[in-house]
Amino acid sequence: MVMKNMENKTLLDIQNLTLSFGTRKVLDDISLTVSDGSIFTIIGPNGAGKTSLINCINMHYKPDSGGITFAGTGLNGLKPHQVATKGIARTFQKVELFQGMTVLDNIKLGRHVLMKYSFLGSFFRLPGIVRDEMKHRQEIEEDVLDFMGLSSFRYAPVGALPFGVRKRVDMARALAMKPKLLLLDEIMAGMAVEEKEDIASYIMDVQRDLGVTIVWIEHDLAPVMDLSDRVCVLNFGTKIAEGTPSEVQKDSQVIEAYLGRQEGKDHA
Length: 268
Fold this sequence. Notes:
By secondary structure, this protein is of the alpha/beta class. It folds into 2 domains: 1-87 and 179-268, P-loop containing nucleotide triphosphate hydrolases (Rossmann fold, 3-Layer(aba) Sandwich); 99-177, no CATH class. 36% of the residues lie in helices and 23% in strands. The strands form 2 sheets. The protein has a 6-stranded mixed beta sheet, with helices on both faces. A 4-stranded antiparallel beta sheet has the order 2-1-4-5, with helices on one face. A hairpin with a 2-residue loop joins strand 9 and strand 10. Helix 3 (103-109) runs parallel beside helix 6. 37% of the residues are buried.
């Protein structure tokens, strides 16, 4: 496991968060803090509320109560695109890419929140707009495509690519936003063993080389325990444990509610 230069500064602070769909309480009084530069993983059985928590962080879901603070700024009441401009990007449990578009064009879409343009400027291709587009394209080529090992696929239509490569494109599109916080929603779901090993190395590179903080939902416990700095366990919308990977693995509530269900298996 790679040794990490950890900082204690809090980047993401969630306090007493609750969320309900009708009479069903999906998240019940969730509090957690994520340190800047860390990999913080959320695990739990299906239906535990993991993706709902991610959806609250980027304000796709509006919490019933509680507060979410990112880099000292409250997120409650913001719209998802406003949250994105604060430096929060995400991938999705199901790959949400434009299948007929190239890898490069899909990744460029992630950059739009950083680009300065107007409708008329884009329509008439004004020099300042063109220069801005070229600058961003060069940065995407050098800082994202190369970094994620996608240079050879830049002009390939996404729909023709293997599943594991498409997952990397989804991650690259999020990184094109230059985020401070990257939300990964089951990035390894559906991958073969070799593909999981590849994406695990990219997760480490993003955290170590780019300095991006990661909040990661995952079912496969082996990479979680190997890569994470801290692990939070949800069960039926309630946080039942939080700590280092070794602490969580020994927690009796986790063993009963999550690990015990798998009878020693690493996949949930």
